[in-house]
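For consistency, the fold was encoded as tokens, as this record shows:
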Amino acid sequence: MTTKFDKNLGEKLEAVREMLKLSKKEVASKMGFESYQILSNIEDGTRKVQAHELALFAKIYLQDINYFLSDEADLGSKLCVLWRDYNSCNEQSVRLKESEFLKYCRNYYELEKVLGVSHKNRLPAEDLAKEDFCDERIREIANKYYHLMQLGARPGCSLAKVLEEKYNIKILYLDLADAGSGASAVDEFGAAILLNCANAPWRRNFDLAHELFHIITWGKFPHEAIHSTTGEKPLVEKWADRFASELLLPADELLAEFDKRKESGKIALIDIIGLAREFMVSTQALLWRLVNLKQIDGKIVEKLEKDMEFRKLDHDLRVGDLHRPNPLSARYVNLALKAYQKGVMSKGKLAEYLATDRMGIKQVLAQFGYAEQGAADVELAVA
């Protein structure tokens, strides 16, 4: 005999499935059901869900199992994720990546709560009124946050670390395929940024700075003004690009290095590429920043963008810098291991948070330089 709980659970399972744009046939197949009618019976509350089935539902739907057992309302209506290069033609892919992103953020926040991590140093929002934004203001805002975060001479080398470790901004790297090129969200867990691990490191840096603009201006601009489907880049997105360029390539530092490499009013292309590597940005971003600073003619850059020999040289000199980051951040893994060692997290939960099974824990930890037991367990007495 089914109960009110079974009916509520069925409704919640149906709501999340629909939010993820998954068909009953797709989910029934993943669940191992002989027919999608079994799933229909579960969703309408006429068939009970077994404990092992609920665990599998949670895994497929990228939700914490406690969500399905609680009275919490549908997650899909609570939070908006802001996408860059939003692909409205592949809604299922977008929703699945969103769910994975948000689950990570909630897990991250739960770790911070159980370990008593303070959020006093959250990055302050930009206080400029919406109607006062313009290109000149973007330059001032970027300069303000550059100094506030103390990013140093090469911001691209330190930005991710500063955002996560100093300002509790959660960063996740996933292969976004055709879902988009990046995303951001602000909620109870704080601020979070999703980046495409398939992109080159310098592209990820730019995307990170771009999404940071959306974090500090969250709520100032309607999301429909950013999720454009017209093909033309919205003005807010142009401002986010300008902010990223100004933040990652501070004028004084860039011009000082540029001047060192000039000889008789010229600069070698190999030095241009070297500068881009040094600042950890794309060569294209560096060139257009130099145009903006009136050091190079824009027409020259347009020709270089079409020059196959230059593009090959750029690729060959930078191919050694290519690498894919681990999806999980080192800070997140450190918090998860610490929670496990303090006894506030079970081994099964640790495996879930590390996106593996019990047998895979050691392998995941080894990627971050940890042994499951050993020196990582030792505590030092302090004054």
Summary: The longest strand covers residues 190-196. The two ends are 61 Å apart (CA to CA).
